[in-house]
Amino acid sequence: STLTFRLPEDSNVKINLITPDGRIISELANGVFASGTHNIDLKLNNISSGTYFYSIETNNKFAIGQFVISK
Questions:
Q1: Per-residue DSSP letters for 21-71?
Q2: HSE, side-chain direction, 13 A CA sphere, residue 36
Q3: Which of 52, 66, 46, 41 has its CA nearest to residue 18?
Q4: pLDDT tens-digit map of 13-59
């Protein structure tokens, strides 16, 4: 699975995979990304089926999304 996001300008980006109880189980990205569209491989091989969240933090924004893993 892939997470796609777009940046209007160069920015520090941190993306985490989070359980429903708020535990961070994986840091998917942490670094500087250029403006434009980016794709991040979620690497879900060792993660059980269920509902999870991801957080994306940039220089000036924070967003949370939800997804379901079904194996």
A1: TS-EEEEEEEEEE-SEEEEEE---TT--SEEEEEEEE-SS-EEEEEEEE--
A2: 5
A3: 52
A4: 999 999 999 999 999 999 999 999 999 988 788 889 999 999 999 99
Lateral strand order in the sheet of 24-33: 24-33, 11-18, 50-57, 62-69
pLDDT score of 71: 80
φ, ψ for residue 10 (rounded to 5)?
A: -55, 140
φ, ψ dihedrals at 36, nearest 5°: 120, -170
What's the CA gap between 48 and 23, in Å, rounded? 14
Q: Which helix (H) or strand (E) holds 17?
A: strand 11-18
